[in-house]
Write a structure and sequence with these properties.
The structure holds two protein chains of two kinds.
Chain A lengths: L23 H39 L9 E2 L4 E2 L4 H30 L2 H16 L2 H27 L26 H25 L3 H9 L4 H12 L1 H17 L2 H6 L18 H8 L5 H36 L4
Antiparallel strand pairs in A: 1-2
Helix pairs in contact in A: 1-11, 2-5, 2-8, 3-5, 4-5, 5-8, 6-7, 7-8, 8-11, 10-11
Chain B lengths: L9 H7 L23 H25 L5 H21 L4 H34 L8 H4 L17 H31 L3 H13 L4 H15 L6 H25 L3 H9 L4 H12 L1 H16 L3 H6 L18 H8 L5 H28 L9 H23 L6 H4 L15
Helix pairs in contact in B: 2-3, 3-4, 4-15, 6-9, 6-12, 6-14, 7-9, 8-9, 9-12, 10-11, 12-15, 14-15
The chains are: A mainly alpha, B mainly alpha.
């Protein structure tokens, strides 16, 4: 520190060593923080690795037939995901078909149309909807929606039954007294309930993307005489495209893994059921929830394999979603 | 920004609108323009189209066609409304305006549909719970001595309430310290390692909750021989809640302004002191919200609990030994029964669960929902008062008790620039 007071010749001026003498508390903090990160990392990898190891036993036993067998009889080595995996996708896609317009409309309403004072309330209402327990959705779906929606199912299958997925075997549209049981416990009803559960997450991703639409472009469009809808069509939707796609994918990821509401509504079948409106559906998560209790060690391993396939599917969907959302965000930070 | 006529000052009037008649006696009184976008004819069109649509639909449904059902009525009424509204607006507007109005009604209808569905689902659970909830024994007894045929005046859900509280409590003991520490780590010790951890955490949010339950079932119960217990259920809930809490807190801590951190470092504070006295207090409300919302997600989760906690009908206050039921699991098992009383009890559980979630949400709303550094009006007032006090204290120390006033008033407007001693 003597350099401050005494003048020093230029040639003796050596670079100071800039070693930051660290506080022991700081060093402890860094070690602790890294430790917490490591614990989380280990836990999370353990889940994946353990699933993989346990599943490999069943996968080695079943081989390629795991993806082609629809039945689930692991103790006689006849099991596969050919029925449950497409069933899961069908429920997820039905759910997204309902959730996408609902989420898009609500996100647009909150960012564009709602009075400013109401926005925070609306946002927390949508967040609340994401936190409503799935068993409550299941109760509503089973006790209220199911008896009331079979009329709609009957109507769709009567008039649109020529489209293969809307066809219902065993239904007689000419007989008004035919029982509604053929329309209950279907992929369609499960999809509607799951749609309500995944709409909030899709909605909040879309809302954040829409709110980031650049105000300059927005006001420019207004100044050129665009109506509110014109602004939405030419500014908000193009800028929020990434958010729409990402939010939808994220919702799809959620829908694929949903368990309890699906278990409460569907009646499981172990053949692939392509008819949305017809009784009988299945999903991987419902399979696990219904079969874990009576499973032998090998059956457990088979369930692990099914769980792993579900996890891999949601993982891929989620990664696509987050990369789409992240890419759409990167460009919008430029203006401020 | 639209200038209303009263904002244009008289001296500027000549330049803005040259044809304004100058003020004075005898000049025609200026009428004030309304800048509101709401016109009477729009309201008439809206109300008229609504009434016409309702009337038309009830005629179609009641007289013309053999339709019935509330759902069909609503859909047909909305379509009729959009068509009639388009016709009414087209009388005095052009195509762009018609499209804008139709889009507006559609967006409003979708948002209304979603919010109505939400309120209906929540309300349905609470309403169907009304049969079981008024009986005080519902909260004070368990189901160990009550069969499915016994009336609602016997038996209750004490065991499930205790189970839920204990399980969520243990999960919070695990996830809150670990989750917050990990979120701090992700933001304060950046690098390749932190990025990797963030990627893994993000991947784990995709983990279906039933698979989390399956993992704990296979490790803790089958491999380690822990037995089905409340503790195993808490572990499953922790695996599920941890990524949620980490991600939410990560986002909140990332929003802490860098200038605050740099100011702390510039004052000579170390990293640990900066985190403890600047980063965490600044993001406190957001972190609390993250934890509460994570709790709300975890408390209603059924599928991990279904595999790990076992089903008990009696009170078991020890989470480490023996099966222990929680509220969502009790709901799930009770409504599978064909007996009316059991279903009523199931709805009672669901209503109780819903009430808990609502309570947590209200709490989150009261505490948080603001970004870091954004203060409520009361906090702002308190902070201003604190810095005024500081100013007085410093002033009296620096210049003595001299009440000349000149110096004390000088820095008045900058009072808020003096940093408060502590947050909140």
């Amino acid at each position: 520190m003597s350099t401050v007071t005494t003048p020093v010749a230029a040639d003796t001026d050596v670079p100071r060593a800039r070693s930051a003498a660290k506080d022991p508390a700081d060093r402890l903090f860094r070690v602790g923080a890294r430790g917490a990160g490591a614990v989380v990392l280990v836990t999370m990898t353990l889940v994946g690795v353990f699933l993989g190891v346990r599943a490999s036993q069943a996968l080695a036993g079943a081989g390629g037939s795991f993806v082609t067998t629809p039945a689930w009889e692991p103790d006689s080595h006849r099991f596969g995901i050919a029925a449950v995996l497409p069933g899961t996708v069908l429920i997820g896609v039905t759910a997204i078909g309902f959730a996408l317009p609902l989420a898009l409309g609500t996100a647009l309403y909150i960012t564009e149309y709602a009075p400013r004072r109401l926005r925070r309330t609306l946002v927390s209402l949508v967040d609340l909807m994401a936190a409503v327990p799935s068993v409550v959705y299941g109760l509503w779906g089973f006790f209220f929606l199911q008896p009331h929606i079979t009329g709609l199912s009957r109507w769709i299958s009567t008039y649109f039954g020529w489209i293969p997925i809307f066809a219902v075997n065993g239904a007689d549209p000419d007989d008004p007294l035919s029982p509604a049981t053929v329309y209950t416990s279907s992929t369609f009803i499960a999809g509607v309930v799951v749609a309500l559960m995944v709409t909030p997450i899709a909605c909040s991703v879309m809302r954040e993307a829409f709110a980031q639409a650049p105000p300059g472009e927005r006001e420019g469009a207004f100044a050129l005489g665009a109506s509110q809808w014109g602004v939405i069509r030419t500014v908000v939707l193009p800028f929020g495209k990434g958010g729409i796609i990402g939010g939808t994918m994220l919702g799809l990821g959620r829908a694929l893994g949903e368990t309890i509401a699906v278990v409460m509504i569907i009646s499981p079948v172990f053949v692939f059921q392509p008819h949305l409106l017809e009784n009988g559906a299945n999903s991987v998560s419902a399979l696990i929830a219904l079969r874990y209790g009576a499973a032998s060690p090998f059956g457990m391993s088979a369930l692990m394999a099914a769980g792993l396939s579900l996890f891999l599917m949601t993982l891929v969907v989620n990664f696509i979603a987050s990369s789409v959302v992240a890419r759409s965000r990167s460009g919008t930070g430029a203006e401020a | 920004m639209t200038l209303t006529t009263d904002q244009i000052r008289p001296d500027a009037a000549g330049t803005v609108t040259p044809d304004v008649v100058p003020d004075g006696p005898g000049a025609p009184a200026e009428t004030r323009r309304t800048t509101s976008a709401l016109h009477a004819r729009d309201v008439f069109a809206l109300v008229g189209a609504g009434a016409a649509a309702l009337a038309l639909t009830s005629v179609i449904f009641g007289r013309v066609l053999p339709f019935d059902g509330a759902l069909g009525f609503t859909v047909v009424a909305h379509l009729a409304f959009m068509a009639l509204y388009a016709v009414l607006i087209s009388l005095d507007e052009n195509g762009a305006v018609i499209r804008a109005r139709l889009a507006q009604t559609l967006v409003h209808a979708l948002a209304f549909l979603l919010l109505a569905a939400l309120l209906f689902i929540v309300g349905y659970a609470l309403w169907r719970g009304r049969e079981a909830l008024p009986h005080p024994n519902f909260f004070t007894e368990d189901m160990s001595g009550t069969g499915p045929l016994q009336p609602l005046t016997e038996g209750g859900m004490l065991h499930a309430i205790v189970g839920t509280l204990e399980q969520i409590g243990i999960s919070l003991l695990v996830t809150v310290p670990l989750g917050l520490a990990c979120a701090v780590f992700l933001n304060e010790v950046p690098g390749r390692y932190a990025r990797f951890v963030r990627t893994i955490v993000e991947a784990m949010t995709a983990l279906p909750s039933i698979v989390a339950g399956l993992f704990v079932y296979a490790t803790a119960i089958l491999a380690l021989g822990l037995g089905k217990s409340g503790f195993a259920a808490s572990l499953a809930l922790s695996v599920m809640m941890l990524p949620i809490i980490i991600r939410a807190s990560d986002v909140v801590i990332r929003l802490v302004p860098g200038s605050l951190r740099e100011a702390s470092y510039a004052l000579g504070a170390g990293q640990w002191r900066t985190v403890w006295t600047v980063v965490l207090p600044t993001s406190r409300s957001g972190l609390t919200t993250a934890v509460i919302l994570g709790t709300a997600r975890g408390i209603g989760e059924t599928s991990p609990v279904l595999l790990t906690s076992g089903a008990a009908t009696g009170l078991n206050a020890n989470p480490f030994d023996g099966p222990q039921t929680s509220l969502p699991l009790a709901t799930f098992t009770l409504v599978a029964s064909p007996e009316k009383a059991m279903i009523a009890r199931g709805f009672g559980c669901a209503a109780l669960l819903m009430a808990l979630v609502l309570l947590l949400f209200l709490l989150a709303r009261v505490i948080g929902g603001r970004g870091p550094g954004q203060l409520s009006r009361r906090q702002q007032k308190r902070r201003t008062a604190a810095s005024l006090r500081d100013l007085e204290r410093m002033g009296s120390q620096a210049y003595g008790p001299d009440p000349s006033g000149g110096r004390a008033d000088g820095p008045g407007p900058e009072a808020s620039a003096v940093p408060p001693p502590r947050a909140g």
